[in-house]
Write a structure and sequence with these properties.
Radius of gyration: 27 Å
Distance between the termini: 22 Å
Largest sheet: 3 strands, antiparallel
Helix content: 55-70%
Shape: globular
Number of strands: 3
Structural class: mainly alpha
Strand content: under 5%
Strand order of the largest sheet: 1-2-3
Number of helices: 18
């Protein structure tokens, strides 16, 4: 007689589950606090309220959790790519059959509820990437396998960008944490971070200032290596003169042309004096960085839509934005969190969130309610639970005996990390407002089901780590 399906309680990680349950309960209570009305208080279980609907989503999530715990863990590795393809089909289908909400065609409308397939796509991509990386022949040091792994991540990203939903697409970058653990070269990450930093710098500062800084840096680098001290003194005077003329008269184009000429002269002299390596390294670097700087501004001005430009300006140049327009969300969010002080105003005592000063309070900006009602201490407790959960997942990943399980757990930890950093970061103005939920706390069935799928399988794989399935 075949064994009946059952939960593996022997290896079950109750600590991880307790972290998840704590976040779910806190989120549910905060959602209730957002809609609470003293004159007409509703029940926590009223299905006509957001808190009641969230409780329904929690019930569905609990059912999903139980089903995954009693299923054979081998199922997920065997059918990983099938699930991945299904999630891609759902993403493509929403482009034609989906409903537009806030400018993005990213939702299926089912009765009175909405379903966002990108949440399931994260689960499918995590499965497919883990299955691919755990294959015996996969070696990320070989270009073919590296491109295939990046392709698994990029395909759903591209489809999601067509919706367009930049926030959900950005989260897929978290899978590069998995690739790093699987052996992807470190220089790729250094290159990506450098280009990203240069893009942000190009939008934060004037293009002229960045090119001037790069040029002056090159002249100084070449000048230091010159054997004749008189040359170095001459070029140092040119540096000071360039900065002075720019600040006083603003001859920007003329200064850049002169700067380029001086850079070429110092480079030739440095080459002739035997320091060719320095010239060969810096010269292409100067032109590449300058090109990226100009390209970043061109992309910002010509390829981004007006609302996307506004979101970046809110982040990098708030002084350019209308406090009653695009800057309103983040200003109100900061006010709500700051007004909570150390101890908070108390449960159900929030005023800014309760009076709808903060938009999207129960979804993207649920952390504002925590900050206002529970204060700094309550906010730190929530952040502490998230940190403990993410670190726990990394620790669990390292104790796995199967590579598939290890890669999958790293994927889940990476997704949670990105969501937490971006969501909380945008509520306090550290990152652009791109609209992604706070795991297990934001209102919504799609995010609750998506994160439940991810965490349920993570706990299941860890519970079966000693069972030896192949």
């Amino acid at each position: 007689m075949a064994d009946r399906p059952s939960i593996n309680t022997k290896g079950f990680d109750w600590i991880t589950l307790s972290f998840v349950l704590a976040l779910i309960v806190i989120g549910w209570i905060m959602i209730y606090a957002v809609e609470y009305n003293e004159q007409n208080p509703a029940s926590l279980f009223d299905l006509n309220t957001s808190a009641g609907k969230q409780l329904l989503f929690i019930g569905i999530a609990a059912a999903i959790f139980m089903v995954i715990q009693i299923m054979d863990a081998r199922f997920w590795r065997i059918f990983a790519f099938i699930i991945y393809v299904i999630s891609l089909l759902l993403l493509v289908g929403v482009l034609f059959l989906g409903s537009s909400i806030k400018g993005a065609t990213a939702w299926y409308q089912i009765g009175g509820f909405s379903f966002q397939p990108s949440e399931v796509a994260k689960f499918g991509t995590c499965l497919a990437l883990s299955s691919f990386l755990s294959a015996y022949s996969t070696n990320l040091k070989q270009r073919r396998y590296m491109l295939m792994a990046i392709g698994i991540i990029a395909v759903p990203q591209i489809i999601i960008m067509l919706q367009p939903d930049a926030g959900s697409a950005l989260v897929f970058l978290s899978f590069f944490i998995v690739l790093y653990r699987a052996g992807l070269e470190s220089w790729i990450y250094a290159l990506f971070i450098s280009i990203a930093a240069l893009f942000v710098s190009a939008l934060l500062f004037e293009t002229y200032n960045i090119v001037l800084f790069l040029g002056l840096g090159g002249i100084a680098l070449f000048g230091i290596q010159l054997k004749q001290r008189n040359y170095f003194i001459l070029f140092f005077i040119i540096l000071c003169a360039s900065v002075w003329f720019t600040l006083k008269y603003g001859y920007k184009n003329e200064i850049l042309v002169g700067l380029l000429i001086v850079l070429i002269i110092t480079g030739v002299i440095t080459w002739l004096q035997g320091n060719s390596r320095t010239v060969l390294l810096y010269t292409p670097l100067f032109f590449i960085c300058s090109g990226i700087t100009y390209a970043a501004n061109w992309v910002f001005q010509n390829m981004l839509q007006a609302h996307q430009q506004e979101r970046i300006n809110v982040w990098l140049h708030p002084e350019r934005c209308d406090p009653r327009g695009s800057l309103y969300n983040v200003l109100q969010s900061k006010l709500a969190i700051g007004s909570g002080g150390i101890n908070g105003k108390g449960f159900l005592q929030g005023t800014l969130t309760k009076l709808n000063y903060v938009p999207e309070q129960s979804t993207d900006f649920i952390f504002c309610t925590v900050g206002e009602e529970q204060g700094f201490i309550g906010s730190m407790v929530v952040l502490g639970i998230f940190l403990a959960l993410i670190l726990r997942l990394f620790w669990m990943a390292e104790r796995q005996k199967l590579e598939f399980s290890r890669h999958y757990l790293y994927g889940v930890a990476g997704i949670l990390f990105f969501h937490v950093i971006i969501n909380i970061g945008m509520t306090i103005g550290l990152v652009p407002i791109i609209g992604i939920p706070l795991p297990f706390m934001s209102y919504g069935g799609s995010s609750m089901i998506g994160f439940t799928l991810l965490m349920s399988l993570a706990i299941k794989l860890d519970a079966d780590r000693n069972s030896g399935y192949r």
